[in-house]
Amino acid sequence: MRRWLACEKHKLLMASLPMGMLALWLIALASGNGQLDAMGNPIGGDFAMFYLAGQTGHSAQWSDLYDEPVQQQRLLALFPGLASDTYLPYRYPPLLAIVLAPLGSLPYLIAFTIFVAASFGVWLASWQALLATFWKTSDRFSGIFLYGLVASPLMAQTIMDGQASLWWFAIAAGCWVAIAQERFILAGVILSLSALKPNVLLLLSIVWVVRYPRLLLGILPSGVVMLVVTLSVAGRECLMTYIELARQLATDSWPVETPYWKVQSLISWSELVFGSNARRVNLWMGLSLAVGIGLWWRVQAARVTSVERSTVDLCGLCTGLIVNALFNPYTPIYDLTLLTLGLFACVAYVVERDLLPQWLARRDVQFSMLSVWLGPILSQTLSRSLQSPLQLMPAVLLTLTVYWLYVLQSSRPEQASAPFRHAAR
């Protein structure tokens, strides 16, 4: 595998899938009609929802923000020719609509172009910050491999869906970088921005706060500022409407059919066991696991040496990311972009120890990395083709997590393979 990656031309091969996805998407846009693509969907996908929320914020018609019939009428007016049953309800806090208000004042296609350019910008800036903080080599082989992580198919999927997950990747990356630099107030301020779409980083935020309570020094003041802005601009009634909506979405059945082919958490599997209580059970399991991981991480970090602590930190971060994905009430495919952060953490860990070639020689490592890199796309395609509510990716991700935790815990100094020598000291 090292020989294969050592060739510069394989940068193009690793980027071919996401670039191919984007190329097909651009063709569909170019062959469309007006603001609809060739398949009759809004150009920008879910961005239409953000745009309409921004329009509502710009016009200060806050009573309409969660009024679904009104938003439906505006959607059909914005996209003449759109199927009348197209449904893009706004499910996020009023503060996000306030932030989006400047885009809502622009023509739709211009606003979408700015959104895509800004998303790419924060995506690249977050990778630059990660590299400056954690990447300890300039080896050409490692650099080409890193290129494959950056050119993730999930990045392309996020852009195609018109979603904002690249921003939440940047929030998670920025928080992690600030924690590594022991700038906890800054890390807390950065993490507080995730409240704009609280479901995306909910469980990982709890893991980090339990592990690093000093994050609250940044989170609490920022939270107060965001609350004051929301109440001053959108009003108390709008905020309370959102809180009730969020409670319903997190614990109860949705008022519209859930597009399970899109959902990559364990919720569809949970419904087989817990039925109508699945969302509530899934959420409480996730909250319990997040607190448990944070406490384990905090206790273990206090017990081990500074050398061993990097292994504990890697386990804490990766398990936190996986719990955040699996037990979230709603984890669409684009939010799995966050898993790329865990993949980078693993690669940076072994690169720092000059173990990457040995690491990649393992079949279990190759399968695990390919599963994270390509698995969500394949899982969603299969689920949609079969019209099945069950996704394979959550089951694969849970199995891999249990497997690697077992490998890490069972390693011994005389038996440990290259990636886990330091973990077994």
Give the topology.
Blueprint: H1 2-5, H2 10-30, H3 47-59, H4 68-78, H5 94-104, H6 108-134, H7 140-150, H8 153-160, H9 165-180, H10 184-192, H11 202-211, H12 216-233, H13 236-251, H14 267-274, H15 278-303, H16 306-326, H17 339-352, H18 356-360, H19 363-386, H20 392-410
Helix pairs in contact: 2-7, 2-8, 3-5, 6-9, 7-17, 9-10, 10-12, 11-15, 11-16, 14-15, 15-16, 16-17, 16-20, 19-20
How would you describe this structure in keywords?
425 residues, disordered N terminus, disordered C terminus, mainly alpha
Q: What this model shows, in words?
A:
By secondary structure, this protein is mainly alpha-helical. It has one domain (2-420). The chain is built from 20 helices and no strands. It has helices spanning 2-5, 10-30, 47-59, 68-78, 94-104, 108-134, 140-150, 153-160, 165-180, 184-192, 202-211, 216-233, 236-251, 267-274, 278-303, 306-326, 339-352, 356-360, 363-386, 392-410. Helix 2 packs parallel to helix 8 (153-160) and helix 16 runs antiparallel to helix 20. The protein is globular, with a radius of gyration of 22 Å. The two termini are 28 Å apart. Residues 1-8 and 412-425 have low confidence and may be disordered.
